[in-house]
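Quick one, T. Sequence first:
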Amino acid sequence: MLSIPSSDVRREWSSVMDTVIREKPVFIKRTRDHMMLSDTGTIWQLIAGVKFIADMYREADGSVTLSARDMDIVANGADEAAARKALVRDIIEYAEEYYQDFERYSAAPNRQGHLPYVIKALVARSPEELEGEVVCRTGRT
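Structure tokens:
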């Protein structure tokens, strides 16, 4: 791997940051640990294929309920646009909670698979950008 020793990263911190922001991610090795330092734009590209697939249900009162297939998040709104905004708001809130208690959430068997969605929510530039990543499908019965 093209790793830079962590001691070199510490010594050349400003240069490494410039490389990460303007050029490419940097791989770092510290003893037996390996990591990647990247800007959020590159991370967004890495998870471009991650979409929030939501089952959509039209309720008897005319409202719309969206249920994220890969996460336990459900939101309701007066129409699809309002439900999508509510779902994204709840996804962002969950992602922040997941990140704050990362050690617990990432170790939980029922939540480990949420990590790509959490990262996507955390690096999105705006809720509106994230709304574009929600794909609504007719709900299963």
